[in-house]
Amino acid sequence: MNLHLSDNLFGFDLPDSAGQRIFRKVFELFIAVSTCYLAWKWGMYTLRISDVVLPLGVARYVDISFMHGNALPLWNAAFISIFAVFGFAGFRGIGRWAYAVAFVLLVFQYAARFSLGEIPHSSNLVGMGLLGYALGRIFFDQPLHGSRFSVGFSYVFVGLSYTFAAWSKLIATGLLWPDGRHLWMWINEKAVDEIARSGFVHLNYVQEWALGSMVLATLFLLVGLLTEFFAFFIWFKRFRTATALAIIGLHMGIWMTMDILFTLSVWELTILGLPWAVWIDYFIDKKLD
Amino acid sequence: MKDVDPNKKSKMLVMAVMCVYVLTVATNLGEFWPFSIYPMFSQGGKSWTRSLVREMPSSDSVSWDATSLENLPGTPFSVKANGVDPIDLANLVSKTVTWDSIRVAALEKMMFGGAVPDRNLMIFKVQGRLTDQDDVEVSATPFVLISPGRDQINPSIVP
After folding, report:
1. pLDDT band at A79 (very low <50, low <70, confident <90, very high)
2. Which of A26, A202, A286, B146 has its CA 20 to 30 A from that of B11?
3. Given CA atoms B130, A167, A251, B15 in this order, what sign does their dihedral have?
4. What is the structure's pLDDT at B3?
5. How far is A284 from chain B (nearest CA, A)?
6. Regarding predicted confidence, which is higher, A268 or B63?
7. Residue A157 has pLDDT above 70, yes or no
8. Which residues 72-131 on chain B approach chain A with CB closer than 8 angstroms?
9. Which of A235, A10, A279 shows the shortest CA–CA distance to A142?
10. What does each C-alpha distance from A256 to A210, A261, A278, B11, B106 come to in angstroms?
């Protein structure tokens, strides 16, 4: 088993194939489309905001209120979309810097949108993916190298993100984090969110099970913590699909127990984690035969 | 960096980004999008504060007493149907220290998108805590009443 990180993450020395090219282009398309989606989603919502409650990220250094009370968020969304399209199209000249410009503009779009205190993490993986493409374009002259770097960069930070999440839990709460009563608190918290969202709440059977059994609730949290802790295994090809499926399972568990679904993250894991390139190559070979 | 081996270049870039990552999250309370230490749900068992909205009948008397979720006055109101993210509402309510006219106006704009209020909406601050008997106790306190005539704030939080 090859445990060399560069080979597992980037594979610069490995032969290319049609399957790999399609896989990389699909992932790049996902990042570009998700960037446009987030830019417009955040831009539209920012029109409702008139006050900064909790400045986040770049808003701690720049007074982000210039983005409020006017149509700037929509203009910004338009520019981000244009640069994302330029980046994906790979135009000469501007194409080299397009993703980087889109990334910087998206950082401001995020800060303007999330100035009311909410700190969501559903978009972080897409943000890191976009940063990976920005760096790949700027620092690699050969498109093949740049593209392989960008995908590998996403593997690094997808794995690290979930492992960081596990560390945060162990540092903030300690080894007793998977105490089932903690899950009871979060289920009740999310039930209130659901009442706020729709006016009503109806607990599903998984939530009822967890609330009815401390052992089951503890088991849910323990499996979740272990999955996050070992998420960095996604760096290695040998464990990539199993790790990605485990993390997708984690997301499904969070969805069932706490009604939170990181849709973009699940899509990203589905694209990055499954052996699409192998399947595509197999399909092409079969067709040619 | 033109002639650098792509493996070496990749390592250098990832290490450089890691340095920026660590520096920014260390100096910005763990968050500098897209960098994060992912602290969600890291504090197990901690009391929480959320928010919800009920549509209230038109009447002069308003009760500002805390109540349980089962005994909330008024009728259910969906913030999502009005384009509001419930987490934003919860944060605006829980993180506001001084309820001055600017903050009440921000709340009104969030709920009605800048239009004149056409109904009475009571914003509740909802708090949950783990009791010594291993139960989760949830109580809702009326905080701000947004109405077509004038907005009212719970007398206990008037600045």
Report:
1. very high
2. A26
3. positive
4. 63
5. 29
6. A268
7. yes
8. 76-81, 83-92, 94-96, 102-103, 105-106, 109-110, 113, 126, 128, 130
9. A10
10. 10, 9, 32, 38, 33
Q: B77 vs A116: CB contact, 8 Å cut-off? A: no
Cβ atoms A228, A250 nearer than 8 A: yes
pLDDT above 70 as % of chain A: 100
Q: Cα(A131)–Cα(A246) distance, rounded to whole angstroms?
A: 25
Query: What's the start-to-end Cα distance of chain B, in Å?
Result: 59
pLDDT beyond 80 at A288: no
Contact in structure between A273 and A234 (CB atoms under 8 Å): yes
Q: Which H or E run includes A150?
A: helix A143-172
Mean pLDDT of A194-199: 90
- Nearest Cα to Cα of residue B76 among B52, B50, B111, B60: B52
Average pLDDT over residues A245-251: 98
Q: Are strands B136-146 and B152-153 parallel, antiparallel or unpaired?
A: antiparallel
Q: Is the pLDDT of residue A33 over 60?
A: yes
Q: Is B27 on the interface with A (CB under 8 A)?
A: no
Burial string for B8-33 (b: 16+ CB within 10 Å, else e) reads ebbbebbeebeeebeebbeebebbbb
